[in-house]
Amino acid sequence: MMATFSLGSGAAITAAASAVLVWWATPRALAADATVRPLAWVLSIGVPLVISYGLYWVPFWFSAFSDQASLWADLVIGVWFVAGAVAAALAMLWRARRLRRALRPHR
Questions:
Q1: What gap in Å lies between CA 21 and CA 85, rounded to an integer?
Q2: Do 86 and 12 meet the contact criterion of CB atoms below 8 Å apart?
Q3: Is 26:43 a contact under the CB 8 Å cutoff?
Q4: 1 in a structural domain
Q5: I want to staple 19 with a disulfide (CB 3.0 to 4.6 A). Which of 27, 29, 32, 91 is the partner?
Q6: How many whole angstroms separate alpha carbon 105 and alpha carbon 39?
């Protein structure tokens, strides 16, 4: 049986994974034209949501369902999502700043 994550460890895993995925995907979204740039913000919200939802429910999908799992889902997924969204937004902003600095003409 798979063990579930604690509130802190799940938040840390969600934050790290979200930051890495958004860091990797941001240059592709920011390098595109202006109509695709909002994709970077969608990634910074969508990636942590998918990761936190999956991290919470995967252990229950492969084992016996716990009646209390759905009672705690909103709180746990919410905390993990906020941790991941903050990390992803910071990673995206940092990456965008570095890309702007690299693309700025040298004087």
A1: 12
A2: no
A3: yes
A4: no
A5: 91
A6: 26
Separation between Cα atoms, residue 15 and residue 47, nearest integer Å: 10
The identity of residue 66, as a single letter, is S
- Cα separation, 85 vs 93, in Å, equals 12
In the chain, the number of structural domains is 1
First vs last C-alpha separation in the chain: 60
Would 106 be classed as within a structural domain?
A: no
For helices 38-61 and 69-103, what crossing angle results, to 10°?
A: 150
* The amino acid at 34: A
Give me the tens of pLDDT residue by residue for the chain, a chain 107 residues long.
Answer: 346 788 999 999 999 999 999 888 877 666 655 556 677 788 889 999 999 999 998 888 877 667 777 888 899 999 999 999 999 999 988 887 887 777 777 66
Range of the domain at 86: 7-100
- Does some domain include residue 67? yes
Structure tokens at 88: 């992803």
